[in-house]
Write a structure and sequence with these properties.
Elements (H helix, E strand, L loop, with lengths): L11 E5 L3 H5 L18 H9 L3 H13 L10 H33 L2 E6 L2 E6 L8 E5 L7 E7 L5 E5 L1 H4 L5 E4 L2 H4 L5 H6 L3 E5 L10 E5 L2 E5 L4 E2 L4 E3 L3 E8 L5 H4 L10 H42 L9 H15 L7 H19 L13 E2 L13 E4 L6 E12 L2 E3 L2 E2 L5 E2 L25 H8 L3 H12 L4 E4 L5 E4 L3 H12 L2 E6 L3 E6 L2 E11 L7 E7 L5 E7 L1 H4 L8 H16 L3 E10 L1 H15 L5 H12 L4 E12 L3 H10 L3 E5 L4 H10 L9 E5 L4 H16 L4 H4 L6 H14 L4 E6 H9 L3 H10 L2 E5 L3 H14 L4 E5 L5 H6 L2 E5 L6 H5 L2 E3 L4 H32 L1 H6 L12 H11 L1 H10 L5 H6 L5 H4 L6 H26 L13 H23 L5 H21 L2 H6 L9 H5 L3 H28 L3 H11 L31 H7 L24 H13 L11
Parallel strand pairs: 15-29, 15-33, 29-32, 30-31, 31-32, 33-34, 34-35
Antiparallel strand pairs: 1-8, 2-3, 2-4, 4-13, 5-11, 5-13, 6-7, 6-12, 8-9, 9-10, 14-35, 16-17, 16-28, 18-19, 20-21, 22-23, 23-24, 24-25, 25-26, 26-27, 27-28
C-alpha cells in the first residue's frame, strides 16, 4: 500500500504488446493488490501514530513523563507505564491480527494462476506477476485478472460474453467483441506471440462505462471503446476461451479504482471520549490551580512554622515555586479520574461482544456452514446507533434466482390453489409440485404447483398452447447440447431463462436457432419456424417481438413486454380479456412479482411484404434511421390479440420482508443502492414492502441535466410541503447548519409516506452540483429511497453525503466487489458471503450469510453492546470521580502537600483488582431485556439512535454523582472521627485509621452501586462483586500484617492498623452510615422515576416479571401482502442489441446453411450490427455521467 505509487502525472497510457522491457520504462503498476494497511517495516511507527491520536493515550504518556520527575511525583512510575504498555500492546496485536488476515486474503488473490504468453509459450503465472502489455488466455467461468483489450475468442467474429455482477450488480450477460484485425489471430500462439500492437489510451480512472483509446498495428490505427475491454472482476461466460492484452493492472484497474480507501474507523463513543478526556484534563487543571494557590498561601503563612517543628535546615522555600510543583503533583494524583484501565476494560468488553456475535447460533447459516463473524472488535457499540442502512439489491436482498411463479392465460390464473371456501392460498413447500419426471428434457430445478395448467395443455387448449409457443419463440436465448446430450440454455437475462424454461417443462421446448429459423419441440413434435423479423427490446419500447412463418405458411407476430405498453396496442376485441388480465396483473404486482404481458397478431402475407420492404429502405437510410425503424415497429405492433401475462418471482433472501419491517419500526431508514435498471429495482422495492400502494407518492428523478434534476427535486418538494411553504421552495444552496435545520423541520412537518427513486445519471448531476443539499433534504424526508443504475463510486458518494451532512451513523451492506467502496465509506460495513465472491466480506467489519441476520445483529447484539458500554462508562466515571476527588477535599486538611489520603497500594490496586471484574461482568453480560424481547420490540432501539444512554449530559450527571459520593466518603468519617475515642479509650483519629475507614467505605459503596446498576444477574456477577469485596479484605489484612512488614518494612508501613480499626464498632457504624448516605438518594430517585416516568424498557421488564409463570405463545408479526395493485409489475432484465446479434448470425458457430429464401433475409445491414450493438449498449450505460463523476 505504501510502496506502490502511481505516477502522479500520467495523462495517457502507452502500452506495447509482448514487450515488457518497453513498458517497464513507464513504471506502470504491476498486478499485485494491497488492501492491507501495514508492512513489517511500517507497522510499528504507523500503528503507534494511530494509537497516540487517541487523546487518552497521549494524556497517559504525558503523565508518565511527569511521574519520572522525582520533585513532583508522589506516585511511582510503574503505576502508569504497566497499564499503558498493556493497552498499547493489546491494541497493536489486534490491529496486526486484522492486517494479517488482509495480507492473507491479498496473497490468496495475488497467487491465483493465469495463463500468460511469455517467450512464445503459454505459461502458468501468478496474478501478481502479470505485467502491463502481457497477453493472457482466459477460459470459460474464469475471473478476469486485469483490465484487458480483447484480441480474439472462441466465438465467431471475436465475440465473448461476460458477467459483470461484481462491477454493477447486473447478472444478465453482456457481449464484448474484438477488432476484426485481431480476431483473426484466433488461438494461434505463434501469431499472438508476434503481435506487437501499441495501444494509446486514457489514464487509469474509475469510469466503468467509458474507455477511449487507439490501437496502432501494421501501419493502421483502430479506435477502441468500452466494448473492446474486459474489466477485472468480470467472469467469462458461455465462451470457451479468449485472449486479451493487459492495459491496466492491479491498483490501476477500474475495479480497484472504485474500491475506495480503507479508513480508520472509530465509534461515536470513542470520539466523545476524546472530548471528555480533554474536558477532564481541563477540570483537573482547574483543581490543580486551586490547590497550587492554596499551597502557595499555606507555605507563605504557615509553612515556616512547620519547618522549625520538623527540624528542616533548608533555606526558606519560594511559595510560588512550591505552588508550581504542587500543581504538577496534584495533576499526577488526580489523574485516576480517567485511569488507563478504563481503556483496557473497554477493549476487553468489545472483544467479549465480538465473541458473542461469532458464537451466536441464531446467526449461523447451515446452508453454507457460515457463521456470523465480527471482523473488527472496535465498532460493536456503533451497531446500536444505526440510523441509515444502505443495501445492495442483487445477492443481498434477492437470491439472484428467477422463478416462473404464475401466469394468466385467457382470463384464468395458473399457479394458485383454492381451498374449500374458495379463498386463494399461498403455495407453500408442503404442497405437491407438478411431476415432470416423465419428461426427460424437462429442467429438474423447475417447480410449479398448479396441476390444472398441465391438464389444460393435455386437453389441447389452443390459448394455452399459443401462450407457451410464444414463450418458446420470442426470446434471445441460445441453445447447445453438452457431451451427454443434455440441452443447455445460454441466457442473456435471467428473466428470459425462467420463461423459456417454463415453456420447456410445459412441452414447448426451444431446441435450436439459426439466423433464419427457430426450431422448437411442441409436445414431442419438432417444428421449425422461419424467423422473418426480430423487433428488439429497448428501454423505450419496453417490449420485444418476433415475426415468424409456421409450417402451415401463416405469418404471426409474437410480442411480450410491459403491460402499460402492450395494452395500448390491443385490438378492441380483447377489451373484456384486458380488464380481467389487468386485475390479475394487479394481483401479481401486489405480491411483488415481475410481470410481462403476452400478445400476438396474425399478419397477411401481402401486408408483411410491403412492411418488410419499407423496413429495408429505412434500414439503409443515412439520416433518421432509428426514428424510421421505430415508426415501422409501431405500425406493425398494433391490433394485437391478448393471450395473458407471466409472473416471475425474483426470489428474495429468506426473511427479507420481516427484517425490513422490523428495522423500519426501529426508525432505521433503508436505502437501496443498485446497479440494476429502474423497473427491476422498483419491483424489488414493492416485493420487500419498502414501497407500498398506500404511499402518498413515489417521486422519480430522471433528469438528464442539472437544471432538469433541480426542477424535478423542486416539484417533489412542492408536493411534500405544498406551494405555501416558501421556505423550502427557494434555492437551498446554504450552509450545512442551516441545511440540517431545514431537514429537521421538514421531517417534523411532513405527514404521510413518500418514496424517492433516482437513477445514476441524475444522481451524478445532483452530487456534483449545489443541488446535492436539495437531494439530501428530499431523500431524508422520504420513507424509502432507491438509487438505480449507480456505479460503485456513486454508492460511496451517497453514503458519504448522508454521513457528512446528517451526522448520522450509517451501515452499508452488500455481497459483491461493486459494494466494497460503500462498505468502506460507511461507519459500519457488512459483507454477505454470497454468490459474488468474497470481496465484500474481506472489506467488511462484520459478515454473515443472509440479510435477515442484520435484524439480530442490530436489534440484539448492537443494542446490547451500546447499552452495556454506556452503563460501563457511566459507572466507571462515577466510581473514579468518587475515588479521586477525596484527595481534593483532603488537600485542605494536609497543608496542600500533595499527600495521598489512601496508601499507595490501595491506589494501585483499586482499578486493577478491587473494582475491575464487577464492572467487566456488567459490561459483558448485562442486558435490560431478553434477546427475544429486543427482536419483538424494535422501538427499544431508538435510545441508541438518539444517543440517550451516554452523552455529555449523562457524563455531567455521573460526575455530580461521583462528587457527591466523594463528599460523603470524606466528610462523614472526618466528622465522626473528630475528637472521637475508641472503645478502649484510645484516640482513633489517626491518619492510617482514617485512610482504612475511607478505603473500606469506598469499596463497599461502589460494590453496592454496581449491584444496583446490574439488570441481569449471572453467577459470574455474584462471584465478581462479592468476591471483589472478599479480595479487598484479604489483601488489606495481608498488607497490614506483621509478616509482610517484616519482609518489606519500607513498602508496607500500616502494620497492625486493620486489626485495630476494624475491631471497633464505631468504625463499622461510620462505614454503614457512609454507605447509606451515598446510596439512598440514588435508590429513591430511581424508584420515583420508574414509578412516575417508566421507560419502554421498564415496562417490558415489568411485563417479563408478570409473565414468568405463564408465558403466552409468541405471535409472529404478520407478513403484509396485498391482493391487488394499481401499478405495473413490469420488470425485464434485458439488454438492447441482441436481436440484431441473432439475425446477423454473428454469434453462431458455422453449421450447414439452410436453404435460402427471400423472406429469410436479415432485417438489418449485417455490416453495421456491431456498431449498432455497441451504440445501444453504450447508451444504456452512458446514463452514468461520464464527464461528471465526482471523486470522493
Amino acid at each position: 500500500m505504501f510502496l506502490c505509487k502511481k505516477k502522479p502525472c500520467e495523462v495517457e497510457r502507452i502500452v506495447k504488446a509482448n514487450d515488457r522491457e518497453y513498458n517497464e520504462k513507464f513504471q506502470y503498476a504491476d498486478n499485485r493488490i494491497h488492501t492491507s494497511k501495514y508492512s513489517i517495516i511500517t507497522f510499528l511507527p504507523i500503528n503507534l501514530f494511530e494509537q497516540f491520536q487517541r487523546v487518552a493515550n497521549a494524556y497517559f504518556l504525558f503523565l508518565l513523563i511527569l511521574q519520572l520527575i522525582p520533585e513532583i511525583s508522589s506516585l511511582t512510575w510503574f503505576t502508569t507505564i504497566v497499564p499503558l504498555v498493556l493497552v498499547i500492546t493489546m491494541t497493536a496485536v489486534k490491529d496486526a491480527t486484522d492486517d494479517y488476515f488482509r495480507h492473507k486474503s491479498d496473497n490468496q488473490v495475488n497467487n491465483r494462476q493465469s495463463e500468460v504468453l511469455i517467450d512464445g509459450k503459454l505459461q502458468n503465472e501468478k496474478w501478481m506477476n502479470v505485467k502491463v502489455g502481457d497477453i493472457i488466455k482466459l477460459e470459460n467461468n474464469q475471473f478476469v485478472a486485469a483490465d484487458l483489450l480483447l484480441l480474439s475468442s472462441s466465438e465467431p467474429h471475436g465475440l465473448c460474453y461476460i458477467e459483470t455482477a461484481e462491477l454493477d450488480g447486473e447478472t444478465n450477460l453482456k457481449v464484448r467483441h474484438a477488432l476484426s484485425v485481431t480476431s483473426e489471430l484466433g488461438a494461434d500462439i505463434s501469431r499472438l506471440a508476434r503481435f506487437d500492437g501499441t495501444v494509446v489510451c486514457e489514464a487509469p480512472n474509475n469510469k466503468l462505462d467509458k474507455f477511449v483509446g487507439v490501437l496502432s498495428w501494421k501501419d493502421s490505427k483502430h479506435s477502441l471503446n468500452n466494448q473492446k475491454i474486459i474489466l477485472r472482476g468480470c467472469i467469462l461466460r458461455n465462451t470457451s476461451w479468449c485472449f486479451g492484452m493487459v492495459i491496466f493492472a492491479g491498483p490501476d484497474t477500474k475495479l480497484i479504482q472504485n474500491s475506495g480507501k480503507t479508513k480508520f474507523k472509530r465509534t461515536s463513543i470513542d470520539r466523545l471520549m476524546n472530548t471528555l478526556v480533554l474536558w477532564i484534563f481541563g477540570f483537573l487543571a482547574c483543581l490543580g490551580i486551586i490547590l497550587a494557590i492554596g499551597n502557595s498561601i499555606w507555605e507563605n503563612q504557615v509553612g515556616g512554622q512547620f519547618r522549625t517543628f520538623l527540624f528542616w535546615n533548608e533555606e526558606e522555600k519560594d511559595s510560588i515555586f512550591s505552588g508550581f510543583l504542587t500543581f504538577w503533583s496534584y495533576i499526577i494524583i488526580l489523574n485516576t479520574v480517567v485511569p488507563i484501565s478504563l481503556y483496557v476494560s473497554m477493549e476487553v468488553i468489545r472483544l467479549g461482544h465480538s465473541y458473542f456475535i461469532n458464537w451466536d447460533r441464531k446467526m449461523y447459516y447451515s446452508g453454507k456452514a457460515a457463521p456470523a463473524e465480527a471482523r473488527t472488535t472496535t465498532l460493536n457499540e456503533e451497531l446500536g446507533q444505526i440510523e441509515y442502512v444502505f443495501s445492495d439489491k442483487t445477492g443481498t436482498l434477492t437470491q439472484n434466482i428467477m422463478t416462473f411463479k404464475k401466469c394468466s392465460i385467457n382470463g384464468r390464473i395458473y399457479g394458485e390453489v383454492c381451498d374449500d371456501t374458495v379463498q386463494k392460498k399461498e403455495i407453500t413447500k408442503e404442497k405437491e409440485p407438478v411431476d415432470f419426471s416423465g419428461k426427460p428434457q424437462a429442467a429438474r430445478s423447475f417447480q410449479f404447483f398448479d396441476q390444472s395448467l398441465m391438464e389444460s395443455i393435455k386437453l389441447g387448449d389452443p390459448n394455452v398452447h399459443e401462450f407457451f409457443r410464444l414463450l418458446a419463440l420470442c426470446h434471445t436465448v441460445m441453445s447447445e447440447e453438452d457431451s451427454t446430450g443434455k440441452l443447455i440454455y445460454q441466457v442473456q437475462s435471467p428473466d428470459e431463462g425462467a420463461l423459456v424454461t417454463a415453456a420447456r417443462n410445459c412441452g414447448f421446448i426451444f431446441k435450436s436457432r439459426t439466423p433464419e429459423t427457430i426450431t422448437i419441440e411442441e409436445l414431442g413434435t419438432l417444428v421449425t419456424y422461419q424467423l422473418l423479423a426480430f423487433l428488439d427490446f429497448n428501454n423505450i419500447r419496453k417490449r420485444m417481438s418476433v415475426i415468424v412463418r409456421n409450417p402451415a405458411g401463416q405469418i404471426k407476430l409474437y410480442s411480450k413486454g410491459a403491460d402499460t405498453i402492450l395494452f395500448e396496442r390491443l385490438h378492441p376485441s380483447s377489451e373484456d380479456l384486458l380488464c380481467l388480465t389487468s386485475d390479475h396483473l394487479g394481483e401479481f404486482a401486489g405480491e411483488g412479482l415481475r410481470t410481462l404481458a403476452i400478445a400476438y397478431r396474425d399478419l397477411d402475407d401481402k401486408y408483411f411484404k410491403e412492411w418488410h420492404k419499407m423496413l429495408e429502405t429505412a434500414s439503409a437510410a443515412m439520416h433518421g434511421r432509428d426514428d424510421q425503424i421505430s415508426g415501422l415497429y409501431e405500425e406493425i405492433e398494433r391490433d394485437l390479440t391478448l393471450l395473458g401475462a407471466t409472473a416471475i418471482e425474483d426470489k428474495l433472501q429468506e426473511g427479507v420482508i420481516e427484517t425490513i419491517a422490523s428495522l423500519s419500526l426501529a426508525s432505521i431508514k433503508i436505502w437501496v443502492l443498485t446497479g440494476d435498471k429502474q423497473e427491476t429495482a422498483v419491483n424489488i422495492g414493492y416485493a420487500c414492502n419498502m414501497l407500498t400502494e398506500d404511499m402518498n407518492d413515489v417521486f422519480v428523478i430522471a433528469g438528464n441535466t442539472v437544471g432538469e434534476v433541480r426542477e424535478e427535486l423542486r416539484k417533489a418538494k412542492g408536493s411534500l410541503f405544498g406551494q405555501n411553504n416558501s421556505v423550502l421552495n427557494g434555492h437551498v444552496a446554504c450552509e450545512k447548519p442551516q441545511q440540517l435545520e431545514l431537514v429537521s423541520v421538514g421531517e417534523d412537518t411532513v405527514t404521510g409516506d413518500y418514496a424517492l427513486v433516482i437513477n445514476g445519471h441524475s444522481l451524478a448531476h445532483a452530487l456534483e452540483s449545489d443541488i446535492k443539499n436539495d437531494l439530501l433534504e428530499l431523500a431524508c424526508l422520504c420513507k424509502t429511497v432507491i438509487c438505480c443504475r449507480v456505479t460503485p463510486l456513486q454508492k460511496a458518494q451517497v453514503v458519504e453525503l448522508v454521513r457528512k451532512h446528517k451526522n448520522a451513523v450509517t451501515l452499508a451492506i452488500g455481497d459483491g466487489a461493486n459494494d466494497v467502496s460503500m462498505i468502506k465509506t460507511a461507519h459500519i460495513g457488512v459483507g454477505i458471503s454470497g454468490q459474488e465472491g468474497l470481496q465484500a466480506v474481506l472489506a467488511s467489519d462484520y459478515s454473515f450469510a443472509q440479510f435477515k441476520y442484520l435484524q439480530r445483529l442490530l436489534l440484539v447484539h448492537g443494542r446490547w453492546s451500546y447499552f452495556r458500554m454506556c452503563k460501563f462508562l457511566c459507572y466507571f466515571f462515577y466510581k473514579n470521580f468518587a475515588f479521586t476527588l477525596v484527595h481534593f477535599w483532603f488537600a485542605f486538611f494536609c497543608g496542600f502537600s500533595a499527600q495521598t489520603v489512601y496508601d499507595q497500594w490501595f491506589i494501585t490496586l483499586f482499578n486493577i483488582v478491587y473494582t475491575s471484574l464487577p464492572v467487566l461482568a456488567m459490561g459483558i453480560f448485562d442486558q435490560d431485556v431478553s434477546d427475544q424481547n429486543s427482536m419483538d420490540c424494535p422501538q427499544l432501539y431508538e435510545p441508541g439512535q438518539l444517543n440517550l444512554l451516554f452523552n455529555k449530559r449523562k457524563f455531567f450527571i455521573c460526575m455530580a454523582h461521583g462528587i457527591y459520593t466523594s463528599l460523603a466518603l470524606f466528610f462523614i468519617p472526618y466528622g465522626a472521627f473528630y475528637n472521637a475515642a475508641g472503645e478502649d479509650g484510645q484516640h482513633v483519629a489517626d491518619y492510617q485509621s482514617f485512610a482504612v475507614t475511607m478505603a473500606t467505605s469506598l469499596v463497599i459503596v461502589v460494590s453496592v452501586q454496581i449491584a444496583l446498576d446490574t439488570s441481569y444477574w449471572t453467577i459470574i456477577n455474584h462471584v465478581f462483586i462479592w468476591g471483589s469485596i472478599a479480595t479487598y479484605f484479604s489483601i488489606l489484612f495481608t498488607m497490614h500484617s506483621n509478616g509482610i512488614f517484616g519482609m518489606f518494612p519500607n513498602q508496607f508501613p500500616f502494620i497492625g492498623n486493620v486489626r485495630h480499626s476494624l475491631t471497633q464498632k464505631c468504625i463499622w457504624l461510620v462505614i454503614l452510615l457512609t454507605t447509606v448516605a451515598s446510596v439512598m438518594p440514588v435508590v429513591a430517585f430511581r424508584f420515583l422515576k420508574m414509578d412516575l416516568h417508566p421507560t419502554p424498557t421498564d415496562q417490558i421488564r415489568r411485563w417479563q416479571k408478570a409473565q414468568k409463570k405463564a408465558r403466552p405463545v409468541r405471535r409472529r408479526r404478520p407478513q403484509a401482502r396485498r391482493s391487488s395493485s394499481r401499478r405495473s409489475g413490469y420488470a425485464f432484465a434485458h439488454q438492447e442489441g441482441y436481436g440484431e446479434l441473432i439475425t446477423s448470425g454473428k454469434n453462431m458457430r458455422a453449421k450447414n446453411p439452410p436453404p435460402a429464401s427471400g423472406l429469410e433475409k436479415p432485417l438489418c445491414n449485417s455490416t453495421s450490427w456491431l456498431e449498432n450493438l455497441c451504440k445501444k449498449t453504450t447508451d444504456t450505460l452512458s446514463s452514468f455521467s461520464q464527464e461528471k463523476t465526482v471523486k470522493l
